[in-house]
Amino acid sequence: MIDGLGGAKYLFAMRITRFDGQYEDPSPPTSQDALDLICVDDDDDIRFITRQALNLDANIAIECVSSGRDVLQLLNRRATLPDCLIVDSRMPMMSGEMLMLAVRSDERFKDIKLIVMSANVHRDDLNRYFALGAAGVVGKPFNAMTLASQVREILSSTIARHGNDWRRTA
């Protein structure tokens, strides 16, 4: 159990692989199921838990940043674009929604899928996220043990775009 800011408590587990008595960093994903993700969240605890949870899947490479500005700079520096951005909806300076608008308005980033992480998951919130181009939404608090499979499920869904109206379809 990890104590977060504001009294939040997080429970997670992670696998540690040991070779010859030494701990090694997991190798980068190499299979067809490999995913390259960037998580953007202003909360240090959420970034830590998200990274640990997604690292449970050996075929997910995850990089975390703390602001919308940081992720836009990272996208501009990277040689390859990620498969998906996992975006906190509420961040200072540049909200998740503003970041989503910036990503969707840049032709270079149009193929990057967006997943919103938010405690705000009422119908109006969901409609707004999907209208901004979200492939899916992960509610906070999330289950760290199932986060990787939840992200994979969202990304495996077909996305049909009609104007500015993004809809998940089976």
Automatic annotation (TrEMBL):
Keywords: Phosphoprotein. Residues 36-155 form the Response regulatory domain. The keyword Phosphoprotein applies. The modification 4-aspartylphosphate is found at D88. This is Response regulator.
